[in-house]
Amino acid sequence: MRKSIKSASKLLVLFFVLAFSASIFMSETLANSEDTATTSIERAENALVSAYQAVLDVERIGADVSGLLAELNEAGEFLAEANMEYRLEDFDEAARFADLGRDIGEEVESKTHELKNLAWSDGVQRMWLTMIGSVLGVILIALGSFWIWRFLKRRYS
After folding, report:
1. Is the dihedral of CA 111, 116, 122, 124 positive or negative?
2. Which pLDDT does position 50 carry in this prediction?
3. Which of 27, 36, 112, 155 could disulfide-link to 54, CB 3.0 to 4.6 Å?
4. Are 75 and 48 in contact (CB under 8 A)?
5. Which residue in 66, 59, 94, 60 sits closest to 80, CA to CA?
6. What is d(CA 28, CA 61) in angstroms, rounded to the nearest whole number?
7. CB neighbours of residue 95 within 10 Å
8. Quick one: average pLDDT of 38-58?
9. How many CB atoms lie within 10 A of CB 20?
């Protein structure tokens, strides 16, 4: 009987040790998951702010940014979903949605660089056309004036 009490008490102690250690590991895993979600959400927010700023810069240049704004809205929806999942303590889903939003934000920002280069090259091309047109206009006016002057000089001489 004594032997069974000793083994039962050992089993009970072992159970409490395992239960206590499991709660420590579970809370540590939960904390890691929460930290990962928090970091992912912060990165996504930074990526979206940077992308919105890049889109505004490209819009000031005169590029068509309607497609980029639609993509940013989608990224914003993912970020909102990530924040909602975070509040519901579903940290894995929060991190997943935040990563989706961050990926779209980074993609939009890279597209803005392409649009900026395209808008710049279009501006340079317009400048050259304007400059060539102006020079040709001045030459034509000068030649036309000279032709009219010679015509009038011959007529009245």
Report:
1. negative
2. 94
3. 112
4. yes
5. 94
6. 50
7. 24
8. 94
9. 10
> Domains of the chain: which residue ranges?
2-156
Question: Which residue type is seen at 89?
Answer: E
How many Cβ atoms sit within 10 Å of the Cβ of residue 85? 20
- For the record, the structure tokens of 36 come out as 């990962």
pLDDT of 54 strictly over 50:
yes
Note whether 108 and 72 are within 8 A (CB): yes
pTM: 0.63
Using the structure block, give the residue that is written with the tokens 């890691």.
32
All residues at 6 or more sequence positions from 137 whose CB lies less than 8 Å from its CB, including other chains? none
Report yes or no: 85 and 35 within 8 Å, Cβ to Cβ. no
pLDDT surpassing 90 at residue 8: no
Closest to 111 in 3D by CA, of 38, 47, 58: 58
Write down the pLDDT at residue 22: 52
Provide the residue type at 36 as one letter: T
**Where do we find the tokens 């929460």?**
34
- Token digits for 23? 């709660």
How far apart, in Å, are the Cα atoms of 138 and each of 6, 127, 132, 141, 149?
Answer: 111, 17, 10, 5, 16
